[in-house]
Every structure is written in C-alpha cells, then in structure tokens.
Amino acid sequence: MNTYPQIEQRFSPFEFYSTMRKNNPIVFDEKNNQWALYRYKDIEKILQDPIKFSSKIQFLQVPPEYRENLNRPSLLNTDPPYHRKLRSIVDTLFVPIEISRLEPRIENIANNLIDKIIKKGSATMDLITDFAYPLPATVIAELLGVPSEDQDLFHQWADNIVSLEINSDNDSFKKADKTVTEMDIYFSKLIEKKKKIPQNDLISHIIRAKVDGHSLSEIEILRFCSLLLNAGHVTTVNLIGNMVFSLLENPQEFKRLQEHQESLIRPTIEETLRYRSPVQLLVRTANADVPLSEGRKGGEGSPKYEIKKGQGLVLFLGSANHDETIFTDPERFDITRKNLRHLGFGNGIHFCLGAPLARLEGQIALKKILERFKTLEFNFDDNNESKDLYSKVSPLESFFLLGLSHLPLRFEHKNV
Q1: How many angstroms separate the CA atoms of 300 and 29, rounded?
Q2: Dihedral pair phi/psi, residue 306, rounded to 5°
Q3: What is the three-state SS of 188-229?
Q4: pLDDT in tens, 65-84
C-alpha cells in the first residue's frame, strides 16, 4: 500500500489524507519497515511521548559512507536529556518577547523587497523568489551573523537537504552529504572569526554557551549553525507562498481579509498553518514494543496495532490538521475559524523553536502585501489551457514539505 500521496498530489494531498484517515488511519508499510499515521489524536499522543517514541531517525537507510554527515545528532533528532541541554542554549532567544523586537527590521526588509518588485515596472513578480524566500533568508542571516548576500548559496543548500526522502536514492544522499561538507567549511571560517571578534549574533552566542559547565564542541556548533540557517527560513518561505496561494484560490476569504485586516491577519496565518501546513510530516522511532489503538471517537478502544521496537513512525501532520473529528469542515480554507489547535509546528518537547519568528514574519509579510498592492492575481503560463489550477503550479519536490518553488503573480500597486 502506498502510504504517501502521489507526486501529482504533492500540493493538494487532502483527498488522499481523507481516504487514509477513513480507511487506514494506522497502517504498516512493509517495504520501508515503518508505520504511517494520519489521525490527529494518534499523532498528538506520540509527539507528547519522547520516552516511548524517539526523535532519532534510526530507520532512515543512509548508506554507510554518508552516515557521519547525515546522521549527526541535532535539536531535531535528539532525545532528553541531551535535547533539553541543547535547546536551553537558544530557547530564550526565540521567545515571543525577544522576537517582537525584530519587527521594525523585518518590516524594513519587506518594504525594500516590495520596492524592488515595483521598480522593475513589469507589474509581475514571482512571489517565492522575489519576496517569500529573501525575506526570512535575510532575517535569519542577520540573526546568525552571516552575509545575507550569500542567499543563493543558502537556498541551494536548503534544497539539497530538504529534498532527502525516506527512500532517497544514492545520488540524493551523495548531494546532501556534499552539501553538509560545504556548510561545515563555510561556517568553520565564520566561527573562527567570531571566536576572535565576538559579535551580538546567534553564532557568537552559541560559541559562548556552556552546557553542564562545558563549551560546545566544534561539531556541535556546526550542527547548530546549519540547522538554524535551514530551519530558520524554509518554513516561512512555504508559509508565505501557501498563504497567498490559498487566499487567491479562495477570493471570498481574500476579500474578507482586505475588509478586516486588523482582526484577521493573525487568524489567516494560523489557518494557513493548518490548511496548507508547510511541514507535512515528522518521523519517530519506537523505543520499545508499543500497542496502539486508533483513537477513534468514543474512546481509545482495545489495542489494535503492535509497534515493534526500532520500527519507524511517519506522522502526517498535514492529515492531522484536516481531521474531521477535530476541525469542522476541515477541507475549507476559513480565516475566521475558531478552532486553531493545529499541529503545524509540531507538539511536545520538539515544538518548533522558531514558531514565534515564523509567525511574526508571516504576519508582517501579509500586512505589507495588503498595504502595498491594490490587486493581486495568478499569472500562470497562458499556454497551459487546463482549467485545473493545480496542473499549473510548481510544487516542491518533497514529501516532508508542502510549498511552491515558484508562484507567478500580476499586481497593481498602491501609490504610497
């Protein structure tokens, strides 16, 4: 049984998820020796139990020659107590009150990007390459203390890393391994400079940090740098792109937002995180034999599935966020939705560290789009005569992430 959406459904996997929730909410994939889970309560329960379910991806079949680079422990794939120690180093820097201080600078970056778009004079743009990518990439580069002019390099690195799949071929692993080596070389040079001349940035903070009275090793600092660079912008790129696409696909919601901007900008961000979750799945490994029931309405019921120690679990957040037992009319994009208990940023001890930053960047991006553009509409290739909107989009080549590599738009700007 195929436990992943078909390639052509990558940007609209909702029907596939609905079928799986109804018929196979928990299913074993014999080919990959892993379980796939699609219901909200099952997934939430596993994410909240790091003792039984490890974040170490032990079932990802990385060829031996690439394991040193690709199986490195980091915030994403470590368990307590080591995970708690790592997270404590940067936790306080990403709380909402600290992130809110970045608002003026993020607004300035957003305005400058829109100025460039308008000055081109074509009344067209690629939302992803012209705005959704450079906005968070510039922000995280400045926070880390790396040159923002290296954005094209960061983009390529992120693409090579996030394109890895559970069943990736050797070429994909080789490309990702080479990318990690390139990042290590790049950051090693920066780290040496910042050790000599510390700055008020994240890398300098990590270099100074102590865990149990000891400084982090060179390899631990490198892991932090690469993780924060990639995770610090990838989610927001897809959040902005998915949000604008969903608004243009649902013009009644876009009109409602334009009429009630002050009250609906934040709910629009949250509904996008639910409806088109940038991160579609997370993976866990069973630390012991664990019985699981389906968690259907009306009680847990008797155990129906026996998860064996060492088996992997693929948790489809994108499906959980469309679970009809949790969300009313889940297949509708509704920016006035009251229940916003989505799992878009995960749950439990691995809840996304950068969630406050991603939310703020998304809110500012949407605010500036509404302020600066009078009209906004799709600008897909006229040669594609298909009436199917999804046949015209350019989805990311990833099952982990849901987003677009390009989103061509036409606009009429306001005279500000």
Answers
A1: 23
A2: -115, 105
A3: HHHHHHHHHCCCCCHHHHHHHCEECCEECCHHHHHHHHHHHH
A4: 888 888 888 899 999 999 99
First to last CA, the chain: 55
Helical ranges in 282-329 per DSSP H: 317-320
Instruction: Report residue 201 CA to chain centroid gap.
Output: 23
Asked if residues 57 and 35 have their Cβ atoms less than 8 Å apart, the reply is: no
CA distances from 228 to 67, 87, 102, 215 (A): 21, 12, 17, 18
Q: What is the pLDDT of residues 301-339, one digit of tens each?
A: 555 899 999 999 999 999 999 999 999 999 999 999 999
Nearest to 150 by CA among 108, 181, 183, 180: 183
Q: Please say if the pLDDT value at position 268 is more than 50.
A: yes
pLDDT in tens, 183-213: 999 999 999 999 999 999 999 999 999 888 8
Q: Is the peptide bond before 81 cis (omega within 30 degrees of 0)?
A: yes
Residue 373 near residue 367 (C-beta atoms within 8 A): no
Q: Is 233 exposed, middle or buried (0-12, 13-18, 19+ CB in 10 A)?
A: buried
State which amino acid sits at residue 197. I
pLDDT value at residue 248: 98
Taking Cα atoms as reference points, which of 99, 70, 64, 58 lies closest to residue 286?
58
